[in-house]
Amino acid sequence: MEKELSISATVSDVVNCLRKMCDVIHANKEYLTELDSAIGDADHGTNMDRGFQAIAKKLSAPVDNDIGGILKMCGMTLVTTVGGASGPLYGTAFLQAGTALAGKQELEPGDLLVAGEAALKGVLMRGKAILGDKTMVDALTPAIAALEEALATGAKAAEALEKASIAAETGMTGTIPIQARKGRASYLGERSIGHQDPGATSSFLLIRTMAETAREIGF
Amino acid sequence: MEKELSISATVSDVVNCLRKMCDVIHANKEYLTELDSAIGDADHGTNMDRGFQAIAKKLSAPVDNDIGGILKMCGMTLVTTVGGASGPLYGTAFLQAGTALAGKQELEPGDLLVAGEAALKGVLMRGKAILGDKTMVDALTPAIAALEEALATGAKAAEALEKASIAAETGMTGTIPIQARKGRASYLGERSIGHQDPGATSSFLLIRTMAETAREIGF
Amino acid sequence: MKKLINKPEDAVKEELEGMALAYPSMIKVSLEPKFVYRADAPVQGKVALISGGGSGHEPMHGGFVGKGMLDAACAGEVFTSPTPDQMLEAAKKVNGGAGILYIVKNYTGDVMNFEMAADMARLENMVVQNILIDDDVAVKDSLWTAGRRGVGATVIAEKITGAGAEKGYDLTKVADLCRKVNASGRSMGLALTSCTVPAAGKPTFELGDDEIEMGIGIHGEPGRTRMKIKSADELTEILALSIIEDGDYSRIVHEWDEKKGDWVDVTLVNEALKQGDQVIAFVNGMGGTPNIELQIIYRKLHEVCEKKGLKIIRNLVGSYITSLEMQGCSITLVRADQEMIELWDAPVMTPGLRWGI
Amino acid sequence: MKKLINKPEDAVKEELEGMALAYPSMIKVSLEPKFVYRADAPVQGKVALISGGGSGHEPMHGGFVGKGMLDAACAGEVFTSPTPDQMLEAAKKVNGGAGILYIVKNYTGDVMNFEMAADMARLENMVVQNILIDDDVAVKDSLWTAGRRGVGATVIAEKITGAGAEKGYDLTKVADLCRKVNASGRSMGLALTSCTVPAAGKPTFELGDDEIEMGIGIHGEPGRTRMKIKSADELTEILALSIIEDGDYSRIVHEWDEKKGDWVDVTLVNEALKQGDQVIAFVNGMGGTPNIELQIIYRKLHEVCEKKGLKIIRNLVGSYITSLEMQGCSITLVRADQEMIELWDAPVMTPGLRWGI
Ligand SMILES: Nc1ncnc2c1ncn2[C@@H]1O[C@H](COP(=O)(O)OP(=O)(O)O)[C@@H](O)[C@H]1O
Ligand SMILES: Nc1ncnc2c1ncn2[C@@H]1O[C@H](COP(=O)(O)OP(=O)(O)O)[C@@H](O)[C@H]1O
Ligand SMILES: [Mg+2]
Ligand SMILES: [Mg+2]
Ligand SMILES: [Mg+2]
Ligand SMILES: [Mg+2]
Q1: Lowest mean pLDDT among A84-93, C283-292, D132-141
Q2: Which segments within D122-224 are labelled E, that is strand?
Q3: Residue D249 falls within a domain, yes or no?
Q4: Which one of D108, D143, D145 has the shortest CB-CB distance to B127?
Q5: Which of A7, A56, A165, D110 is deepest in the core (most CB within 10 A)?
């Protein structure tokens, strides 16, 4: 089967995508920390990079032929290396996504939604934020909604993820004018207005990376 | 006796002179501290001003009709308010000068030399510095020598003090190119070179004030 | 950035190595995962107190491990909550069979990580309770925020509950005591300068030459307002009055219900300080504040308390819960009853706090 | 200048007032003239230990007054030696009839003021000895300088001689002990930033973003050399090796000869540290240095000592002799024999140093 015609993603596609996520986070380390300096404690980039570099290291060894297992491994790695608020949140997201895809060796486009919904549910359960609290939820929620909508109209994975990425970006920039109600930025009260949420930004970066990978592999 | 013809200085002349010293030190407080920042601990101006303001306060009450006693009172005030290196040194200088002039109600020009020599001896005894160590001694020593020389050739007090003031100034600027061997500046080793000694500067300021007062009162 | 460190990413590890070398009679150190624990752990039959949080607040928490205070402290990266695996391993190491109390400062990251750790420890058959410290009155409400931050009262809570545990209190009693100290404690802080997170390499915020941040946390996060600097007396008054005039504070917290076997939402109320109260007064330096300034603040705090009818019965003045090299201070007042005073006075022997031994 | 003070000229007075309020069980305070003294002074039959110096080095010296350490401490203005009248009044207040030991850091001002004070105290029939502390190896020779400065060894000397006096040593024995601690001690420090003297209102010196001052004193005076910053390990090595490789140090000091009834010049020699020595290791913060950095330094110091055959038998890590808010550190090593170790371990109860009580 040629890549162009592929309608499923393999284990190595997923690993590839995860590796790219590691690179993207690494490249945006300073940027994310910068955002966190303004309304937080200047560590979001360092936190995320520590976690994703640990993932990258694990991915350099051979992995199981189980996409769910790989995602769970990523989740555990994030939980045990990131710390802060983003560690348990992203860790839970990956753990839940992994659980949802347990045993899978290939992904259909629909699996993306299953995993995405599970991940978002994990974040909401763990962090108890709602839409508009100025957190990563503000990027993740519209992204999953866009993914669902696109897939429902029969879009290809890449296309649906592209829509999700655009929605995440809109959600991310949408955090700028609002006041934080969760996380460290909430302590600033009105002073949090005018700044983009770091976690929403890292969420967008991860989703955009998925969309790009999907496009590249013709998923 | 008219002022122009005066060849002696009265108690009130001395008190006047001391008051002017207080003003001069006050006016040069920042400058002296600035000099001390470069090669010391940034307090010489504050120290001197604390002491001379205490003297000014004492001089605002009526004083004994005894120049020696007044100088001793100044010495005790400096000893108990200035602290640091300059406190005991200037304190001793005034105490010794006061002892040398004990009971005097008027000063002849020659008394200046007696007092000056006693003061210098006190400083040398207390601080054990020698000429060229980059201390107040470098201003005081040539000043007393010039005073002696001028008086020996029959100069008036004002004239002799003017010579002393010029010699003190030369001594003071002479501390710039040399390396400190006493006091806090000595810790800097060669880095003390190129800076003017704060204590030599305050000594010059005090002597210049005496010269000015003498000129004004025609002493 | 000028700091006496080697590589930013090694700072916490090397700090712990230094502590292990400096205080072998009081503490031991685990590096993988990172935590500090009592040299004589586990103390059989004693409730084990574990705290932890981001590094950069030293001596808290690692410096409070030892006889009469904490059994273990988990060190996260600078200003970053530690991870559940650290907390779990610490629990295993110091578990003396009488249960584990996790003392958790109320920050989203700390709360979530300690909750995960507690769930994991329960899977290993430990009895665990998490108690939150949330004493920072700079955070006004809990509806529009993540709730009040845990700051100065943490130090007081760790001392007093440590003494309670040492005395043989059971887990319920230690947890109640910790809740009580927290319910009686209020704090507020300010910053004259920012700190610099080593990995970030530059100050978290910039302040003008005559500006301060009022209502600062302990992570270099900006405060609630930026204002012109005032005299020590005026600033002390602002901090003290914010604490003293703060009303009752009610909020919902997540606690484990051992009977139900589940997390439940509990409404807790901290009662306002009132005239006639006896308090432990704590003037804290943020890391870069000289002692002389803390004493000047204590002097004024004493006066304000007196005027407001509060009697300072015990005090602590020094830099105990810090933000790296930040200049600034915080004030904590904790209403203290006889039990709390006795436990405060009980012997303690840790790297950061010591008396009676 | 941003500081938590009111008026610069009131800072020391208000600090002392704060201390009096904070530690009534340990100390009392005289404001006219300014000194801190033991709450239970005079202790009859005990040699009275008095130190003092400029303020801005807190907790030294006022924070070291109390059982097992100093009887009194005279506080000068910031960085300015106190005056003889303070020292005399302090002596009168704490004189227990067994003599007075003035512990004097070797700075021109301190030396002269304490000498005058001793002369005045003798006029009032007290038996007084002045012992100098001069441990700073950054000052190379004593011919071209005012001699080595008294820095970190002061803290160790005050603790150990305090314990000796508490134990009942007579004046000669306490003086000998103090001389011994000093002769066995060596220190060196560095600064990352300047401090700001309150009355001066701006930093004493300016340093570039990547510069440090090596061989700094404790008064914000510039060091011997300015250099590029290096890693904590490298800087620790420079400080430690400067101390360890420093040879015998001989100089003439002024001491009172009780028999002769006059000051005499005495030649004293500090013997270099050598392999096999046991040492008390003291890593000191300059006031604005976070704890985390001090532990990182201690870690490396331990390694260097081990490599050089020195055994660290006791240690002290913290900010005990400071320069206001200066960032930086100093290292002190003191060769310790059994007597010194036992006296080090003896109980001490002061605002700044406490154990065993
Ligand atoms: N309760 C929450 N629910 C969802 N996301 C949250 C919550 N609290 C914080 N976040 C996210 O975490 C991000 C901060 O992560 P990070 O800086 O790594 O942790 P910390 O705040 O502990 O320093 C925020 O920008 C926000 O997007
Ligand atoms: N041994 C000494 N003999 C004479 N003058 C000295 C001696 N040591 C220091 N000085 C003078 O004292 C001045 C410093 O005074 P000051 O700054 O008030 O005291 P400190 O050095 O204790 O801070 C020096 O500039 C120097 O002129
Ligand atoms: Mg953060
Ligand atoms: Mg000076
Ligand atoms: Mg953080
Ligand atoms: Mg001085």
Answers
A1: D132-141
A2: 128-133, 185-191, 211-214
A3: no
A4: D108
A5: D110
Q: Mind listing the pLDDT tens digit for each residue in A43-58?
A: 999 999 999 999 999 9
Report d(CA B94, CA B89) in Å as an integer.
9
One domain, residues C107 and C209: no
pTM of the model: 0.95
Which residues span the domain enclosing C105? 8-184+255-269
D14 & D163 share domain: yes
**d(C-alpha C66, C-alpha C40), whole Å:** 9
Structure tokens at D273: 């540290």
Contacts of C22 (CB under 8 A, 6+ apart): C351, D295, D298, D302, D315, D317
D1 lies in some domain: no
Q: Which strand (E) or helix (H) includes residue B47?
A: helix B44-59
Confidence of residue C51 (pLDDT cuts 50, 70, 90): very high
Whether pLDDT at D221 is above 90? no
Using a threshold of 3 CB pairs under 8 A, tell whether chains C and A touch: yes
Predicted pLDDT at A2 = 41
The CATH architecture to which A9-217 belongs is: Alpha Horseshoe (1.25)
Q: Please tell me the number of Cα atoms within 13 Å of A211 on its side-chain side.
A: 23
Query: Mean pLDDT of residues grouped by 10 in chain A (219 residues)?
Result: 64 97 98 94 95 98 94 98 97 98 96 98 96 98 98 96 98 97 91 96 98 95
CA C8 → CA C11, C34, D239, D292, distances in Å?
5, 16, 21, 12
pLDDT of residue A192: 93
Residue B1, pLDDT score: 38
Give the domain ranges of chain A: 9-217
- With an 8 Å Cβ cutoff, are A84 and C54 in contact? yes
Subunit partners of chain A (3 or more CB pairs within 8 A): C
> What residues form DSSP beta bridges with C188?
C331
Cα(B210)–Cα(B160) distance, integer angstroms: 11
Where in the sequence numbering do the catalytic residues of D fall?
57, 219
Query: Is beta strand D328-335 parallel, antiparallel or unpaired with respect to D278-285?
Result: antiparallel
The H or E element that residue C15 is part of is helix C11-22
Q: Write out pLDDT tens, residues D166-182.
A: 999 999 999 999 999 99
Closest residue in C to D318 (Cα) is C352
Judged by CB atoms closer than 8 Å, whether chains meet at C107 and A46 is answered as no
What's the CA gap between A98 and A63, in Å, rounded? Answer: 14
Please, what sign has the CA dihedral across residues B174, B178, B182, B183? positive
Kindly state the tokens that stand for D114.
Answer: 């304490």
Residues of chain D with Cβ-Cβ distance to B35 below 8 Å are none
Q: Match 């967008």 to its residue by tokens.
A: A204
What sign has the CA pseudo-torsion D199, D202, D203, D204?
A: negative
D31-48: pLDDT as tens digits? 999 999 999 999 999 999
What are φ and ψ of residue C217, in 5° steps? Answer: -90, -155
Work out whether the CA dihedral D221, D225, D228, D229 comes out positive or negative.
negative
D264 and D134, same structural domain?
yes
Residue D210 has pLDDT above 90, yes or no: yes
Cβ(B193)–Cβ(B178) under 8 Å?
yes
ipTM, 2 dp: 0.94
pLDDT reading at C220 higher than 90: no
The pLDDT value given to residue A164: 98
Find the distance separating the first CA and the last CA of chain B, reported in whole Å.
12
Together in a domain, D306 and D264? no
Atom of ligand 2 nearest to the CA of B87: 18
What is the token pair recorded at B172?
């003071």
Q: List the one residue out of B131, B176, B182 whose CA is nearest residue D143.
A: B182
- CATH for C325: 3.30.1180.20
Q: Whose CA is nearest to atom 7 of ligand 2?
A: B183
B57/B26 Cα distance (integer angstroms): 13
Amino acid type, C305: C
